[in-house]
Structure to design on (407 residues):
């Protein structure tokens, strides 16, 4: 990073360099206008932290390997001072391919965000190698009781901040155990304390997590209420995360206008952060929303933008999923030639990145698209041949009638 805390190469820098190269590609050096070195940032550079919210300093929680962040609520990483257990999201149980099949199944109709797994089922039943190892559910419940005792002790000692942290950590353990009702109970206690303390950072984190809990319980309107509370306390970065979650919740309620507007706002705010991760998540969700509601042109534009950002950030799984969804866009309009192009590229990226399950879907989708294309070609040939025979027969009959008339 540069010493002035600006990005090493921003989008404006890249566009300026690209424009200089394109405009001077075939011009001799002595006749070129400007100097390329003036477009490249000065040294020395220094390493800076990853993008975060400009008001609260909070960051997006890291994704598990090969996970998709499309059509699921996303959350903040709790502050280090909380000392919270590592949160495990429900989507860790569902592979990107399972999500992708749900996307394609619902692409031409209203969204269906019903959970694809039993929400009360323990995460230890997941066979995914990417699900982090944690203690058994029973041990988490015992630890939760210890945190409750710690909260009561802190209350007696007048340490309200520590009491709120103990309640948050209790809720985190129930969250990991997918007992969202219990998690909401302790997060509500935490909010009451943090509001009295006017703790902005804590309130943002808690509203974000409690909104996701309600989201998992399919109480989308209550989830949206908490997302809006989070949005009002954050900068561009935090607002983008809240608006992505609102867009996903509105899609679950089949509120087309509100969903698309929330995601458009998320894209605008994420661009202000210059964080490719948040921007790609916003664009991917917006593209999927347009795809579900039948605006294929807008879906194509946003998914292509998302794919470009995924490529720049070396997110091979994200790029492959965008390519698969773009192939689905062209399959819906029965343009199987272009669909094959996107499916074949998705297959190539999935193979290069070792994304086995996406590779399997790409192979199947490519095969289906080729089959449909060949079927259409055969039908066209058959129709052409039938039309040709019919035309020839009509010409023959017309000639016979004319001959009889002459006779």
């Amino acid at each position: 990073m540069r010493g002035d805390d600006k990005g090493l190469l921003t989008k404006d820098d890249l566009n300026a360099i690209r424009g200089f190269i394109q405009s001077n590609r075939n011009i001799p050096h002595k006749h070129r206008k400007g100097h390329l070195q003036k477009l490249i940032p000065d040294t020395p550079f220094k390493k800076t932290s990853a993008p975060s919210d400009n008001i609260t300093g909070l960051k997006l929680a890291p994704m598990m390997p090969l996970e998709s962040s499309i059509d699921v609520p996303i959350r903040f990483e709790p502050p280090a001072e909380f000392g919270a257990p590592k949160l495990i999201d429900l989507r860790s149980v569902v592979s990107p391919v399972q999500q992708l099949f749900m996307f394609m199944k619902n692409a031409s109709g209203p969204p269906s965000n019903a959970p694809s797994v039993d929400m009360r089922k323990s995460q230890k039943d997941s066979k995914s190698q990417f699900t982090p190892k944690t203690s058994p559910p029973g041990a988490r419940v015992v630890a939760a009781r210890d945190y409750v005792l710690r909260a009561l002790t802190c209350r007696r000692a007048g340490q309200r901040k520590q009491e709120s942290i103990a309640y948050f950590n209790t809720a985190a353990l129930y969250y990991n155990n997918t007992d969202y009702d219990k998690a909401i109970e302790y997060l509500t206690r935490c909010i009451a304390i943090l509001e009295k303390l006017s703790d902005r950072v804590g309130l943002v984190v808690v509203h974000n997590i409690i909104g996701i809990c309600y989201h998992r319980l399919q109480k989308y309107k209550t989830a949206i209420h908490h997302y809006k509370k989070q949005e009002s306390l954050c900068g561009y970065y935090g607002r983008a995360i809240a608006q992505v979650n609102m867009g996903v919740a509105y899609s679950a309620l089949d509120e087309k206008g509100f969903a698309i507007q929330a995601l458009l706002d998320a894209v605008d705010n994420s661009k202000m952060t210059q964080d490719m991760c948040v921007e790609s998540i916003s664009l991917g969700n917006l593209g999927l929303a347009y795809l579900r509601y039948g605006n294929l042109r807008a879906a194509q534009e946003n998914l292509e933008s998302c794919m470009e950002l995924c490529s720049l950030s070396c997110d091979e799984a994200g790029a492959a999923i965008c390519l698969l969804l773009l192939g689905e866009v062209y399959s819906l309009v029965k343009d199987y030639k272009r669909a094959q192009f996107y499916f074949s590229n998705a297959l190539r990226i999935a193979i290069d990145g070792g994304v086995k399950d996406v590779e399997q879907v790409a192979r199947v989708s490519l095969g289906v698209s080729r089959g449909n294309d060949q079927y259409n070609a055969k039908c066209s040939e058959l129709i052409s041949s039938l039309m040709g025979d019919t035309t020839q027969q009509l010409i023959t009959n017309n000639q016979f009638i004319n001959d009889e008339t002459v006779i």
Q: What stands out?
A: Residues 112 and 198 are 38 Å apart (CA to CA).
